[in-house]
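Pipeline run #58 for the internal structure catalog. This entry was flagged by the ingest filter as a single-chain record with no existing model, so it goes straight to prediction. Upstream metadata was stripped on purpose; only the residue string is passed forward. Reviewer on rotation: M.T. Logging verbosity set to normal.
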Amino acid sequence: MSKPALGQSALACAFGTLFAVILAFPACKHGQQKAGQSAENVDPSQVVAKVDDTVITVTDVQERINKQSPFVRARYTNADRKKEFLDGLIKFEVMASEAERLGYDKDPEVQRVMKQQMISKFMQKDFESKLKVEDVPDADVEKYYNDHPTEFHQKDEVRVSQILVKDKAKADKAYAEARALPKGPANVGDGKGFRDLVTKYSEDEESKPRGGDLSFFAADSATTPKAIVDGAFKLKEVGDVAAPIKTDKGFAILRLTQKRPGFSRPLPEVKRQIQQRLFRDLRAKSMDAFVADLKKKSNIEIHEDNLAKVVVDTTGASAGVGPGGMGPGSSGMSGMPGMGMGLHGAPGASGMPGMSPSPGAHPMPPGMMNHPPGAGPRPPMPTPPPAAPGAP
């Protein structure tokens, strides 16, 4: 069947989204009632509207309104607003019906979007739901804890800046000027006064470009001279200055710039955190094994000689679809190009509530497959695809 040449890609994308929504929110014609039930079997007292042989019921309207955010739901509490919402559902159905009549359900882009939604549902029900954070063995958690001690145990550390000179008289002069500097975290945070003294007096070419900063070190540091460590840990308050300390390189005047208290987190306290981290690896490995098994069951042929004929435009001028039919800004499931185009219609977009996705109907953006339950907010969804014609 021929299709209008003008705007074919845009229409295919828009109606592709419509049919993807039909997959996520089946029309009664395709299963809004119980599976296998015809429109004639719907209780007449529950019918809100009919569009040809498609029935929209009280339950349909109620469920779709209640899937919106609380803020949006509050707009549909009176009769006029409910009619407005119903009109949006009717628009959705008549546009979907017309698109199907014109053969857009056979369009490759539409089919691709439908496949993406089908795979998303399949993954959520047949893969995701079978994995839990608790599946990570306690032995693996304990091993990770023992293998990464610095993540869970940290000693007290201090940070100082130094002025290093070889002459004692020069050191005493620098010390006197350093002691006259204002104390307190605010003044130390600026640090300009002491840096000026470092520039003026210090003879240590290694630390001088950094304003004398020696960074953080602990009391048992093996890289910082013991005399410096001992002198630094004797300083009590940020901004305190130590009298000239004799070292192998001369005399050092130290100023305390930061203190970092240590911590020790026992295994029970961090067990869940470690489980979540290891769970990401577990899911990734399970996903790889799952896909590998599916590949073994399929008859796959790869013609690399023809693959070499693919020409990639690297000019950045094209804004066409990406792998698997993804539009600009779309992202694919990790390692699965073609899983990228999700449903991102805003609630009530173009006055069409039917364009709003159901919770969980989104294909997963990069990293989402590896985001365990209870691990905090999920990564942001990818940029929405272009809206349907007429969308605001």
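catalog note: The CA atoms of residues 67 and 359 lie 7 Å apart.
catalog note: DSSP finds 13 helices and eight strands in the chain.
status: ready for reviewer M.T.
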